[in-house]
Structures are given as C-alpha cells and as structure tokens.
Amino acid sequence: MSEASKNLLAGGDDELIAAGDDELIFAEEDEVEEKPIEASWKILIVDDEIEIHNITKLALKDFTFENKLITFISAYSGKEAKEIIQAHRDIALILLDVVMETEEAGLEVVKYIRDILDNQIVRIILRTGQPGQVPEDVVIVSYDINDYKTKTELTNKKLFTTVVTALRAFRSLTQIEASKSELEKIAAASARFVPREFLRFLKIESIVDARLGDSVQAEMTIMFADIRSFTSLSESMSPQQNFDFINSYLSRVGPVIRQYNGFIDKYIGDGIMALFPNKAEDAVQAAIEMQHQVKIYNIHRQNSGYQPIALGIGLHTGTLMLGTIGEAERMESTVISDAVNLASRVEGLTKLYGVGIVASVQTLCRLDDPQHYKCRFLDRVQVKGKKTPVGVFEIYDGDSETMIELKAQTQTYFEQGIFLYYQQQFAQARRMFRRVLQVNKSDKAASFYAERCGILMKNALIMTLEEIEI
Predict the structure, then answer these.
(1) 225-263, pLDDT tens digit by residue?
(2) d(CA 393, CA 418)
(3) Exposed, middle or buried, 184 (CB in 10 Å: 0-12/13-18/19+)?
(4) Which residues are within 8 A (CB) of 42 and not within 5 positions of it... i.e. 6 or more apart?
(5) Whole-structure pTM over 0.70, yes or no?
(6) Phi then psi dihedrals of residue 134, to 5 deg
(7) Residue pLDDT, tens place only, 81-125
(8) Exposure string over 318-348, b if 16+ CB within 10 A, otherwise e
(9) How confident is the model over 161-213, as pLDDT tens digits?
(10) CA distance from start to end of the chain
(11) For a tag site, which of 141, 220, 339, 445 has the least CB within 10 Å?
C-alpha cells in the first residue's frame, strides 16, 4: 500500500459519520436521525492508482450530504476522464490526480472542463503524490481549480471536510445557475410583450429598468394593417375559432415585419401597429411581402373550406414619441404623435378605395427610388387639426399579377381622371374613370371616383336649377 493510501485511512480519534441538512457532524451513532435517502451526488475519481480509488470509496462509504449519498465514477487516465465528464454534465466534484499518462494530464483535464466544455460549476480538487512536480502557487494562479492537496494530507477527516465544502459550493452554484436560467427565460418572455427594439430606443437593457415617463423622440415609418370585414367574418366563428384564426394569420405576417427591420408595437384585435425605425423602404417592402403572404394563406384557407381574407395596409413617415405611460402599478409602452393618427387614417383609406396598400407622400419621398414601385396617386386627405392636406398613393406591387398588369395599362386614364376631378371637371373626370373600368372592372378606386363624380355632377345640377328658380 502506498504512503498516500495509508494517510487516507488515518481517521483520527472522532468517529466520522454522515453530514446531513448542510451540517458537519461528529457524533455518536445513536444521535443520528434516519431520513429517507434522496438522489445522489456524483463524484468522479481520476487517478492511475487503483488503490486510491478503493481507499477513497472506503473512506466515504457512509457519507451523506443534505440527505444524499454519493455515486462514485472512476477514470484511470486523463483521456478517460474527458470522455466521462462530457457524458455526465451533472458531476458535482472531481478528485483529480495531476500526474497520470503524462506529467500534466490532470491539468489538461482542468483546461478541457473549463475552456472546452465551459463547465464552470463542477468543483475540481487536484490531488498529487508528487507535490514538487507542479508547484501549488503556480497551479492555483494558472488553473481554475478549487483546491490543491497532496495525497498524504488527505486523512479521513480532511477528505470528509473537503468533500462537504466542495458539495456545498456546487449546490450554491447550481442554485445560482438555475436562478440565472429562470431570469433569462423571463427576459426572453418579456421581449414577446415589450419589443427589445422599444427598450433599445429608450436606452435601457431590460424591462426591469423601465420607468414611468421614459420617452424618446424619433422619426419612423408607421404601419397599420387590418383585415377587411373582420367583424362579419368573426361573427361566423366561435371565440376559440377567432383566436385560432387571428394567431394563424399573425404567425404569417408578423415574421415579415421583423424580416424587414420593423417591430410590432401592439396588436389591436386583428389589427397590427408596427414601427420601422431605419428607413421607409423597409416598411414598403414589408407591406408588399405581407400581401404576398396573405395570398399564400388564402390558398390554404380555400383548400380547407374557409373564406379568403383581404388585408389593408397604411404607411406614413413622421416624428413620434416612444415611451411608457400609466401609473406605478400598471404601465405599458406606447407611441404618441400626430404621425400615428395619420398612419391610422391612411390605413382606413384602403377600405374607402378598395386597395391593398396606401402610403403617404411623406413615406414615398423618403424612398431611394419611388419609381421602383408600382404606385398611383389616390387623393389628398385632410387630417384633423392640420391645415395642409396630405397626399396619399396606392402601391399595388402586392396585387395579383393580373391586377398589376391591368392597373399599369389604365394608369394614364386614372391619373387624368384624378387631375380633372381636382379641376372640378367632373363630367370629363368620370369619362376617364369609366375608360379605366372598361379595361379593369375590378378597379374599385376608379369605380369609387366615377360614382363620386356622378354625385357631384348631380349636386351641381340641382344647385344650378335652384339658382334659376330663384
């Protein structure tokens, strides 16, 4: 038997018994309360001397800590130790020899654990029978170990104390890691309720740091998107079917917004309000792609026997304030500005003119090349509280190929009709819109203007007759 093994068996005068409930106990056998044994601690013994394995197991045979026994795992080389550690990531303690197949085999195992496996929790105690081979001060400074002992100094009692101290540290680190993991899950979950981009604009790292009244001013493109005739559609569905439908739809268009560097500020029933902080081009491309995704979704809906849906999208670019509102016990992120109101109004125009995408002139002016998109002037709208009307345009790149071709063919007539309409030459304007409808009966914007011109002509005739009668 080696000198190290003899020292390990040297027990001292006190009877060594198990440690339970996080206490070191040296007492008589009849003072110990028996409790049900729970799961065990895994301890890996790494040593090329088989008797060191046997003696260590014998010394800790009846050991318990926090009512858990020990499960011993043995490795007889650094190479074998690496394989075991990779397979058992829940090992609590490693009793590691330094000199095995090479003079620094144990130190290579330490590097592998900490640097390659990135395991910072397992406790590592180096044991050496040749203390002069690798000086203790050098090892402690250069390697991430938790203790360095010579085999001769590890008597029964000292081994017991060393193991309990290591397991106590492992338990604490495991609890900290679990808490950290839980906090990371909470942070990830909170990002699904308050977008990270929103927090980034407020210059805070986490929702925990958000304070009531935090705000920042920025220019962005605002998108409002809404399903056409959703109220009548939802009336034919149960509440659960409504939820399933909305989530199915949002799962298709939501990723598109993120794909084009936008983020969803809020859901308004079936509607979406999204912000594009980088450039207006992102919002326009996202709107077009969202229309394409709805077409794909409609194929799935029709194949499943469901009614297809239509999507209206409004875009406007302007200055807004992002911030938090509410009170101490309940607050939320929000966006406030005239630009938001106008973007919502622009989205509402998609219903009026029967088109898929409407963008304000402010958004078009911020595009690198507006002519890259298929668009036509629709109207000038008066915004509440503003004196100057805002020009709005239809962007029809998201329409079907047939509709795109028909609108391109009739665009000259349509634009002439708009010009004449604003010149109050309603009869001539109506003729232009009727020419559009002769080619494209489905052009709802042309149909709207033709009807409006007819009403205005009729009103003008009535007013003229009234003047004659007077």
Answers:
(1) 999 888 778 778 888 988 888 999 999 999 999 999 999
(2) 12
(3) exposed
(4) 70, 71, 73, 88, 90, 91, 92, 93
(5) no
(6) -130, 110
(7) 999 999 998 999 999 998 899 888 999 999 999 999 999 999 999
(8) bebebbbeeeeeebebbbebebbbbbbbbbe
(9) 899 999 999 999 988 888 887 777 766 666 666 667 777 777 676 666 667 66
(10) 131
(11) 141
pLDDT of residue 150: 80
Model confidence band, residue 469 (pLDDT cutoffs 50, 70, 90) = very low
350, two tokens: 């998609």
pLDDT at 282: 97
The answer to whether the CB of 327 falls within 8 A of the CB of 313 is no
The answer to whether 362 and 393 have CB atoms below 8 angstroms apart is: no
The pLDDT value recorded for residue 417 is 96
Please check whether residue 85 is in contact with residue 123, taking contact to mean a CB–CB distance below 8 angstroms. Answer: no
Mean pLDDT of the 340-356 span: 93
User: What pLDDT is stored for residue 38 in this prediction?
Assistant: 57
Cα–Cα distances (Å) from 190 to 178, 198, 199, 378, in that order, read 18, 12, 11, 41
Select from 185, 107, 131, 119 the least CA-distant residue to 4: 131
